[in-house]
Amino acid sequence: MTRRNGSVIKYIVFIVLFLGVVYFIYMHNKVNEKLKDTERTAERYRREQESCSSQLQESLIQLLVQKKSFLLFQTQNDDLQAEYSKLNLDLQKDKEEQKQVESQRNQEYMQLKQEKELELTSLKDQLANLGREKQQLADEVNSLRTQLQNAQVKMNNELPHPKSPQ
Questions:
Q1: pTM
Q2: pLDDT digit string (tens) for 31-41?
Q3: Domain limits for position 86
């Protein structure tokens, strides 16, 4: 019976070993499947990571380009604002100069107008004086004519008159 028991034990050990090997192979296959799934998942994540890294790199390049463009536009904007301010100041200066020139011209015009009005008044006075002098001279000429005529008449009256042939 011991032989039989020894055979049974051998069979049991053999079955246990066989089941252990089958279990080991099963577990080995299962672990290999999980490993392959994990490798596939890791590969997928790696590709996604590479894609994300590539997109990130492109985004960074775009960001740098946009930043450079922004800085360029900002510099241009600052330059244009400075130029605008300068032109605005120049315009204000020109307006002030124009006002001063107009004011000076108005003053010169008013002064010239006053001078011309004074000159005109002076000329009118001179004309009036000349008119009075002319009248006075005309009166004197008339007076002298009258005196001359009176003197001629008197002289004619005092001189003997030749008798006219009759």
A1: 0.46
A2: 999 999 999 99
A3: 1-113
